[in-house]
Amino acid sequence: MGHAYTPGLKVTPKILLKKQRILPLKGDVVVKKGDRVSADDVVARTELPGKVKPVNAANILGVLPADLPKHIIVPVGSVMNKGDIYATAKVFFGLFKTNLKSPADDITLETVSNITGKVLLREKPMPVEVKAYVDGTVTEVYPDEGVEVTSWAAMAQGIFGIGGETNGILRMVCESPNEPLTPDKIRDEHKDCILIGGSIVTAAALEKAVEKKARAIIVGGFNDQDLRNFLGYDLGVAITGSEDKGITLVVTEGFGEIPMTQRTFELLKQYEGKRACCHGATQIRAGVIRPEVVLPMAESELEKGEDVKAGALEPGTPIRVIREPYFGRIGRVTELPPEPRPLESETKARVLLLKFNDEDQEVMVPRANVEILET
Amino acid sequence: MNKKPEDIKVIVATDCGSTTTKAILIQYDEEKGEYRQTHRGEAPTTVEAPFEDVTMGVLNSVQELAELSGRKLVDENNRIIKERGENEGADVYISTSSAGGGLQMMVAGVVRSMTAESAERAALGAGAIVMDVIASNDHRLPHEQIERIRQLRPDMILLSGGIDGGTKKHVVELAELIAAADPKPRLGIGYKLPIIYAGNKDACEEVQNALEETVDLVVVDNLRPVLERENLGPAREKIHDMFMEHVMQQAPGYKKLMGWADSQIMPTPGAVGNIIARVAEMNNLEVVGVDIGGATTDVFSVFNDPGDATPVFNRTVSANLGMSYSISNVLAEAGLANISRWVPFAIDEKILRNQIKNKMIRPTTIPQTLTSLVIEQAIAREALRLAFVQHKSFATVLKGVQQQRTISDAFEQSGTEETIVNLMNLNLLVGSGGVLSHAPRRHQSAMMMLDAFRPEGITILAVDSIFMMPHLGVLAEVHPKAATEVFLKDCLIFLGTAIAPVGQVKAGKPVMKYSIDFPDGKNESGVLKQGDMKLFPLGINQKAQAVFEPIAKVDIGEGRGQTVRREIDGGLVGIILDGRGRPLMTVPDDKNERISQMVGWLENLEVYNSEELRALGRQ
Questions:
Q1: CB distance B366–A347 less than 8 Å?
Q2: What angle (nearest 5°) sits at the alpha carbon of residue B302, between those of residues B232 and B247?
């Protein structure tokens, strides 16, 4: 035991994706096993109970809480329209009446309490729909809960993202993975598209992409200061995906200016002009969720490519360093010393020796600070 | 479990964490007549896909124990062997769990500073993360409270409110709010959310009427039966029961694991609190324990009530202060200036921000360079400091368990919120969690704890060696003697003793005279000046005789200007004289002065490699 954890992000030209599309509450599944669905198709829907508003009825009517039920003139559970009277009481020696009316249409009288003297009014339920997210086939139906959609696709996972699920036509806006995505590269015709950048997206470019209504940006790096300015707050913990900023951002490498891995860039390039799906949801804890770009494959494309597997960490394995002082650099393992060795920080850790692609010199890094590049 | 304590000789304990399952083997040494922890194994936790069975990780970690110890612990049917033979099996198997995010609760009470706070204490003491506290006077409108309850999706809710025989209206109102929200449990789509009612017993019927159709309601004794007394035991026990019966049943493999265990599976922080409270009680110590993890920082304390001197246990969880998952939040809450003051070189904000975020998104990486290590440890100081600030404000006089007070005291205290955390009385400060337990030099752990907690007077510093406090916390339920023996002998690594005079003195002026007689006959004596940090090596299990004579306005524990004669305990670091004053002297505004001061302190305490530190300072 005790082997170091080497996180690797999936970047593959072909994978059989199985996506579970589950409702937050029980509801209706509207497709059946074997159905072909496209990304925007609704596969299940339900209704979230409406908002509840307590009304201090006994107080307003001027009656004791224990007497309140006598003054309610519609049955509990009734659905009322705006202005419908649901409670009434005579005041001032019976000369005047005080009435309680429904504040809007489709309001349900939920409960009447003879202890607290309050009634609860509930607004109409809010519909919730779950879409297929990817083009594919329904391969499993979980009654009342949702479905599994299966699809052959190419896929690239990111390390961090913001924003929810979306889809659009892929457009390469940088010529190489080393090129920053700047505002001048974003044009009117990028509306509803997913834009592929290089090493970093600048704050101004991101703003312009929102203005031009691009749906998503996939890029190597992003500055944390720009993230804070864009979101309007400092992101404390890595739980994202529900941001509503008008765009989805998928960062493939990390924070700072870091060229997108050549392989990711090339894979995305192959799908330029085709429809892709992506999301920015990130959760780094138990049950890790990483953002992703899914590139559905047409029947005719199924011949190409093969799913890649991450190899074991052994001499010759291609790896990328994921922490300073060699952050972002790519090389190959040359040696895996079994015993822990002291680092510059005096931390003793299991290490590996590697050579970077462009150099002969061998360097040492902790095994925990590399990720295996899938081949 | 029917075994007598004296028949228990071999114990296997596991802690199923979010990412790793850790197993330890404890064996009775017949010759020495004591229990010792002998081996340790670990394996990835297997709660999530593709494995979805926690027992696989448990068996893997126990199998590693077996291989390391040469004792057969797992049988051919993949079960832990529970019949002890010559060289196989264990007498007892116990476990804790925080997998899947631990126990996440919401609590509700009528008055925020009274029943709601008592409910919060009960939930925290049981080892839960309290997601929110709903109270009738929490300044939120009812529909906002309902919306919040609906959003949270806790594992369970603890509802309290009203003293027995008191007004029922408010607690019933809360029950109606919860019913209206129709809350859903976090795990599992098809079962009802468990709610424990521990409020006014006279309101039981109305609360049941309001809630029983929507949720799975259980009623226990009121946790605040009268205003001046808390009765948290029944609620805490029920939380543990419900955790086992409901929450754990939803987690894959736990049913099987519960069948194996000889004692209830406790939430990990509940078990840590248990061992700290027991050790404090058995040794008559006032203790602070801290566990700084990737996502959260837990602080536990036992201090004597200033009124009747009964020990009071408190636990707080700072849910978003941690060293990986929540590291970015430490920067957001503490601010760059507070982190920079612990860094003995200049840092660029843009680079620092990106580095911190990169640690957040790749939490398993470790600092390779000294720069990275120093920055991580600076962030740790602020996470610990902020967590301790929260703890002190929570651990107030009224909030003590089973306190007998008069009603007038109760009202007075709710206004003043006086903390019972008196650092001058603190005997033992225990640090746990990777950044403290695995710092490359123990001196770094000591310095981080001094900077964050700022103990006053004379305090012993220790770290948890391999995070076995959770295991020992459950073991304490089964075999208290074994648990406390292993805690003091194997779990704690003593760093030494810090002497921190309290008082404000001008920089460079004398604070106290000291004279320390070491066991080898050597004597160290001199004058400690304001701003000095001194270190005298004194090994583990060694003791020195010391005399400290503070100046008139300085206190070392016996009162201002009073001489202290004490036996001082050693450790892997030794004796630290911390002359930085309490409150801690201010950091110079000038960058170069700040760096020079910091380098001086770090060098005196041998915290980092001096040459490399100076080189960084020059950059």
A1: yes
A2: 45
Tally the domains of chain A: 3
Token digits for B63? 């199998």
* Whether B288 contacts B426, CB under 8 Å: yes
- Are residues A345 and A255 both part of a single domain? no
Q: Which domain holds residue A118?
A: 52-122
Where does residue A51 rank: exposed (0-12), middle (13-18), buried (19+ CB within 10 A)? Answer: middle
Is the distance from CB of B144 to CB of A86 less than 8 angstroms? Answer: no
Residue A5: its pLDDT value, please? 39
**CATH code at position A363:** 2.30.30
List the B216-219 sheet strands across, edge first: B128-135, B103-109, B156-159, B194-197, B216-219
B212 inside 8 A of chain A by CB = no
Contacts of A119 in chain B (CB under 8 A): none
Confidence of residue B50 (pLDDT cuts 50, 70, 90): low
* Residues A91 and A159 reside in one and the same domain: no
Contacts of A159 in chain B (CB under 8 A): 361-362
Token pair 């109409």: residue? A124
Residues A227 and A201: their CA atoms lie apart, in Å, by 10
pLDDT digits (tens, 9 = 90+) for B483-536: 989 998 899 999 999 999 999 899 999 999 999 999 999 999 999 999 999 999
Dihedral-angle region of residue A106 (phi above 0 means left; psi in -120 to 50 means alpha; beta otherwise)? left
Closest CA to B464 of B19, B98, B40: B40
Is the sign of the CA dihedral A304, A307, A310, A311 positive or negative? Answer: negative
CA angle B576, B580, B585 (to 5 degrees): 155
Residue B343, C-beta contacts closer than 8 angstroms, at least 6 positions apart: B374, B375, B378, B598
How many A×B Cβ pairs under 8 Å?
Answer: 191
Which of A223, A284, A325 minimises the CB distance to B350?
Answer: A223
Which residues of chain B have a CB within 8 Å of the CB of A3?
Answer: none
Peptide bond into B583 cis (omega under 30): yes
Q: Alpha-carbon distance B572 to B446, whole Å?
A: 10
Q: Is the pLDDT of residue B199 over 90?
A: yes
Answer yes or no: are the C-beta atoms of A252 and A156 closer than 8 Å. Answer: yes
Cβ B382 vs Cβ B334: under 8 Å: yes
Please name the residues between 447 and 486 in chain B that touch chain A, using a CB distance below 8 Å.
none
Q: What CATH number is associated with residue A212?
A: 3.50.30
Query: Residue B438, exposed/middle/buried by CB under 10 A (0-12, 13-18, 19+)?
Result: middle
Q: Are strands B20-29 and A85-91 parallel, antiparallel or unpaired?
A: unpaired
Q: Is residue A227 part of a domain?
A: yes
Backbone φ and ψ for B111, nearest 5 degrees, come out as -100, 130
Distance CA A111, CA A99 (A): 17
Task: Express each pLDDT in A233-265 by its tens digit.
Answer: 888 877 888 888 999 999 999 999 999 988 899
Q: How many CB atoms lie within 10 A of CB B53?
A: 16
Positive/negative CA dihedral, A73, A75, A81, A82: positive
* Structure token digits, residue A243: 């941001």
Q: Do A234 and B332 touch (CB under 8 A)?
A: yes
Shortest Cα–Cα distance, A93 to chain B (Å):
28
Instruction: Tell me which long-range contacts A79-88 makes (C-beta under 8 A, separation of at least 24).
Output: A79/A106, A79/A107, A79/A108, A80/A107, A80/A108, A80/A109, A81/A105, A81/A106, A81/A107, A82/A107, A86/A119, A87/A57, A87/A61, A87/A119, A88/A61
**What mean pLDDT is predicted for residues A100-129?**
89
Top CATH class of B102-260 equals alpha beta
CA distance A254 to chain B (A): 6
Side chain identity at A228, as an amino acid letter?
R
| Smallest Cα distance from A53 to chain B, Å | 6
**Same domain, residue pair A237 and A193:** yes
Is ipTM > 0.95 here? no
